[in-house]
Amino acid sequence: MEVISVNLQSSKYDIVIENGILDDVGAEVREIYKEIKIAVVTDDNVYKLYGKTVEKSLKKYNFKPCFIILNPGEDSKSIETLQNLYDNFLKFGLTRSDLVIALGGGVIGDLAGFAAATYLRGIEFVQIPTTLLAQIDSSIGGKVAVNLKQGKNLIGSFYQPKKVIIDPLAIKTLSNEQLKAGLSEVIKYACIKDEQFFNYLMEIKTMKDLFNSLEYIIYTCCNIKKEIVEIDEKDNGIRMILNFGHTLGHALERYLNFNITHGEAVAIGMHYITNKTEELGYTKRGSKFKLEKLLDNFNINYDLPNVDMETIRKYILFDKKNKSGNINLVILRKIGEAFIETVPIERINYFF
Ligand code: NAD
CA–CA distance from 227 to each of 146, 162, 164, 204, 341 (Å)? Predict the structure, then answer.
């Protein structure tokens, strides 16, 4: 078992990573929670695959779980579903000393985390992420949110879990599309922070190699995110480097009405900006080629579809991450090293 301790000013918690740990979730939860009632928020797909395993293990440790099973997909990250969660928490008699578990992908983690952050002014929660994206990214760092009709993640908070329990074997049942979405973010971590990890990923040639390496891959990504979040919990500085590829990626998702996975949009964004910054002399020559090779290695598309760049630029300018007339653009100095360039919005054409 790999354990990563996250030490923040406001809280401290462990990320535990082990193949098969879903069978022993009860023991992990018992270490941080002494009462019995738990609201387990999950979605229908995840419940069918792992619900019974988690329920059995929780009951073995004398917990009383109540499963709240939602429709899979981004539409569930809504105010309406949030209200539904509160209703179920109240019906179950969940009090401030009880616990919420988020069992699922990033949608479930963000939604259940926000519900936990706000229900009775905050009750404790545990993340059990089951997609690769959730295991390496969304379950760590405490960002929880729901969407509004006007845009994604517009209502949210920073609210840290008490524990993150990761079973890399859960990735075996993910669709290829979801797997690639997570792998794009894995590549992002390697690009911004760790050249050796980048080279390690280059050596993965088969699905068997990939699954044999998953525990290490997840551990490495979680460790990178932990180090960044520990320095900048509230996303005011260095944490922004996690947005590598996201400036164009977010605009593209919006342009395509979210008919593209977040991962593919990020891959296109990472490639586009690296191509540009290499041309402009910000990025070491050859970095774009290396990035292409790694994306090809995992069969991840990075070609920008036919889009109207004027509209894309408009979306980039209205991204909620922009501050006081500036865009914080994440640029690679070379593979394994990134920096933030603050670009006044008048200069956006220079990059996009
Ligand atoms: P998701 O939660 O919708 O899961 C994708 C699909 O995979 C769903 O259909 C789900 O039912 C299914 N699934 C989950 N686990 C499975 C498994 N083990 N086997 C088979 N199917 C499984 O999507 P996601 O990509 O995990 O998360 C996307 C969300 O995460 C977005 O809402 C995004 O805004 C958010 N996010 C949050 C952060 C953060 O820091 N909080 C970071 C990145 C993304």
Answer: 26, 18, 16, 25, 21
> Cα separation of 199 and 132, whole Å?
20
Positive or negative torsion for Cα 230, 233, 237, 243: positive
C-beta of 72 in contact with ligand 1 (< 6 A): yes
- Cα dihedral: 240, 246, 250, 256 (round 10): -170
**Token pair belonging to 340:** 């933030």
Q: What spacing in Å lies between the alpha carbon of 346 and ligand 1's midpoint?
A: 35
Q: What is the best residue among 131, 137, 222 to mutate for testing ligand 1's pocket, by most ligand atoms within 8 Å of CB?
A: 131
Check pocket membership of 138 for ligand 1, CB cut-off 6 A: yes
- Residue ranges of the alpha helices (H) in the chain? 25-30, 44-46, 52-60, 79-91, 106-118, 132-133, 176-193, 195-202, 207-231, 246-255, 262-279, 287-297, 309-317, 348-351
Q: Determine if the pTM surpasses 0.85.
A: yes
- Mean pLDDT by runs of 10 across the 352 residues of the chain is 93 96 98 97 98 98 98 96 98 97 98 98 98 97 93 93 98 96 97 98 94 97 96 90 95 93 96 97 98 96 96 86 83 97 90 94
